[in-house]
Amino acid sequence: MSQSEDRFVGCLLGLAVGDALGMPAEGRTRPQIERIFADGLRFLPDERRGMPAGCFTDDTQLMLCHLDSILEKGCADTADIAQRFLNLFLGEGIRGIGTSTLKALLRLKGGVRAEEAGEEGFWAAGNGVAMRIAPVGLLFAFVEGDIYDEVRKAAVMTHRNEEAIAGGYVVAEVVRRCAGRDTGIAEAAQKALQRVETTKVAGRLKEALKMLEEGVAAEEAVMRLGTGGYVVETVASAVYAAAFYGEDYTEALRVLIFAGGDTDTTAAICGALIGAKFGKDVIPQPLRTGVERGSEIEEKARRLYRVARELGG
């Protein structure tokens, strides 16, 4: 496997593993999280939702919808992605679905066009795009130019809020630059925020990059940046932990998960960024083999690498 292909695998497995690790901690207090992970960060079940250890949530479910659509269509096809979301919603079900996504899917079910189904307004500024967008960034890893419109195409069926789209763009661009250009995580984030300069996502990300330069401890930084479901918080904290810890995948995720809040999503995004930069081997072997559908995700990541290489000429 080439270094670039290894990064594709690392990105998507890193996302799924982060999601599954953060799953049982979501919505718990820090003392509760410290108690359940007293023996170290590992896959645990969530008895509240009847989810077994190693099981992922909507973050990875919807990422896989993007991935499968891209593998079939070769692009970010709004209508096809929306239909896959809807099929999942009406079939297997979406685990831990967000409010904005739920409302959008109900509109889709009622016949609203995919391009018009997404939520608008302040309350739609969640992290539902950022958590699932990694395959779009990987698709364009070897292509020059601006991918903002491609991210928008993959976002609008659930979110038409500019902050939600901006957060998704930042994640996709960092993934793209790390996997395809060997750019550092902080450097890639700096370049990405220039495209969404006027957004709150960019403002909070600037704060994160400034704290990185100052060497602020990760625990303090993520507390100041926030770890809730608001995309402005999620993206900045995930980027901070990924850039601060680098190849130390487990420690980066530990800090985010112990901070509480939207633990599965912050860990999923951070895991995707670290995997895109450093490849799959930074993810401990027991986690790679123990995550739900891990071998399938790896195989599809390799296929996406071949599609991206062909697209990049």
Question: Which features characterize this protein?
Answer:
313 residues; mainly alpha; 17 helices; 65% helix
What's the structural blueprint in terms of helices and strands?
Elements: H1 3-22, H2 30-36, H3 58-73, H4 78-90, H5 99-109, H6 114-117, H7 134-139, H8 148-155, H9 162-181, H10 185-195, H11 200-214, H12 218-225, H13 231-245, H14 249-258, H15 263-278, H16 285-290, H17 294-311
Helix pairs in contact: 1-9, 1-15, 1-17, 3-4, 3-17, 8-9, 9-10, 9-13, 9-15, 10-11, 11-13, 12-13, 13-14, 13-15, 14-15
Give the SSE order as H and E letters. Answer: HHHHHHHHHHHHHHHHH
Number of helices: 17
The Rg value, from CA coordinates, equals: 17 Å
**Overall morphology:** globular
User: Main sheet, how many strands, which sense, barrel?
Assistant: none
What distance separates the N and C termini?
Answer: 19 Å
Low-confidence stretches: none
Structural class: mainly alpha
Mean pLDDT: 97
Helix content range of the residues, please?
A: 55-70%
Q: Let me know the number of strands.
A: 0
Percent of residues in beta strands? under 5%
